[in-house]
Amino acid sequence: MTPPARECPRFPLALNENPYGPLPSVRRALEGALVSANRYPEFWPRRLPRLIANHLGCSSEQIVVGAGATGVIMHILQALLTGPDAEVVMADPTFDGYPLLTVTVGGHPVMVPLTADGSQDLEAMLAAIDARTQIVVLCNPHNPTGTRLRHRDLAGFLNRIDARITVILDEAYIEFMPPHRRTDTDLILAAHPNVIVVRTFSKAFGLAGLRVGYALTNPQTAARIARWQIPFGINALAEIAVHASYAAQGELNHRIRTITRERDRLTAALRRLGYTPPDSAANYVFVPLTDPVQAGRVSEAFAAAGIRAKQYPAGIRITVGDPTANDAVIASLTDAQSGLPVSSCGNALARTTI
Ligand SMILES: Cc1ncc(COP(=O)(O)O)c(C=O)c1O
């Protein structure tokens, strides 16, 4: 029997997925583990948080795992947002999960526009905080622009926030950033117990389909979040995949180098064409497009080439794919820039995917 049909563009570049599947040794471990798929995972996940904590060098009481970072974010909002007026301050745009899940749990997203260079506007976010604010969300690197937060700026921001407000520091793409460019999470967490770091195995590790992510915070907050976990809620393959992924640091580094090299090639090519993507610290590139005619031409060119990217009012976010996909993006954006007609087969820019 054939599996259910999945709508599949030739170049699926809308979800910031890793184009290369799980790491080879992780794939082998997963194949070997499939024979035990008749067995339940742990009732409450204990081994997986321990595994992650050992890798990070923290206590397992500080880790809460979930069904991807999305599942963890949902549990954070369920646990910490209280009352009918609760507000969550976040950048506009940001990862769509944040406004969506905030509304799902009955909160109100307060959207703060990015600066002109695509960075989260820390001053404006501070100014947006009021008595109703319960959570502030920062992403590093930011989605969709790929801009990064500097340690000094983040620390300054946190010093000015009332400790009653929780700050979610979303590091879904942190592995794509060289270590010397990352903010010092240990220092941040030690100085600010109100911070929750969120990470995922969906991006650099290439495990989006397995749904595994985690929060890292102080043990008391972690325990509050964990109360929302679902029994047997983490699939049994997640633990095997994480274990094998941590053992495959060399393969992971190779992947990251391949993707970031392609990202830099794509960025340079787009700049040569006259587009103005900001420097990205992640596995995607944001192309500002404010002229509706030009945006329409890009949409047409992408549709003709079978490229699915993600559209925003101010531009498009293109996931870095394999070299063939990136060449197709460059060719399409060359066409769109040239003014020559492109054949159209529908709108390739996904508005609804997150
Ligand atoms: C910034 C950010 N956070 C969290 C997520 C959620 O990732 P997942 O639920 O696959 O772990 C994404 C997914 O695109 C993201 O871009």
Describe the overall structure.
The structure is a single chain. With 354 residues, the chain is α/β, with parallel strands linked by helices. It folds into two domains: 11-18 and 250-350, Aspartate Aminotransferase, domain 1; 24-246, Aspartate Aminotransferase, domain 2 (3-Layer(aba) Sandwich), CATH 3.40.640.10. 39% of the residues lie in helices and 16% in strands. Helix 1 (24-33) packs antiparallel against helix 9 (236-246) and helix 10 packs parallel to helix 12. The longest helix has 24 residues, at 249-272. Bound molecules: pyridoxal-5'-phosphate (PLP). Pyridoxal-5'-phosphate is lined by residues 16, 68-70, 95, 97, 139, 143, 170, 172, 200, 202, 208, 213.
